[in-house]
What does this fold into?
Amino acid sequence: MKSAMKERFIFVFLVAGIGFFITGFIFQMLGPLFFLRNIPMKSVEELVQEDVDAEFYQLAEDYPDEFQKAFGEPTAAAYAAALRLGRDIYIKEACWHCHSQYVRPIANEPVRYGAVSVASEYQNELEMPVLFGTRRVGPDLIRESMVHSNDWHVAHFYDPPSVQPGSVMPSYKWFYDENGRPNKKGLAITAYVQWLGSWHRR
Ligand code: HEC
It folds into this structure.
């Protein structure tokens, strides 16, 4: 008698457990589908309509030949192309492996990096997929805009320890032509890091 009761309990718990698992699974799938599918997602064109960053014009002035060859004139369309390419390089070179793009409201992070991140900042094409990152070997980059000059970034990507002694960030020599001037990749990644958080300065 006693063991028959026990078996019954085990059976009920098993069925309930599997039932909850399946329900949870379905709701986790349907929830985002229903609640998030109508969130407005900005395209890069919509983003740059609002502002072409001053640092982008600066790149065109400082590296006229390289810039002309890579993007032509520093128009909004060129800026959109540079940001898209910069984002792709950021993913391809696994910058996200060492850098986060998310300021958390804890541990005095705002003092170190700037304003705490909010959801709306990530509702655009350049943050799909989101590049929050999981590790911080280097600093968070979502407020990177204007922290350094273009020249600093150009020197830094070429040889990080030359401007930041002891840096463990790898050098990205393939962002440069044979004369050591930034090529299309170098210009795009610099435009991209200068864009990160630029909306906070407007
Ligand atoms: C192996 C880890 C690692 C990888 C990969 C890496 N970084 Fe870094 N990065 C660091 C570290 C550590 C620092 C801090 C020291 C320094 O400034 O060099 C840093 C600093 C930076 C800074 C300066 C931040 C500041 O506010 O001073 C920028 C910008 C940056 N990285 C961008 C990138 C980009 C873009 C890529 C990919 C092309 C990249 N990093 C790849 C580790 C990494």
The mean pLDDT is 92. Residues 148 and 194 are 8 Å apart (CA to CA).
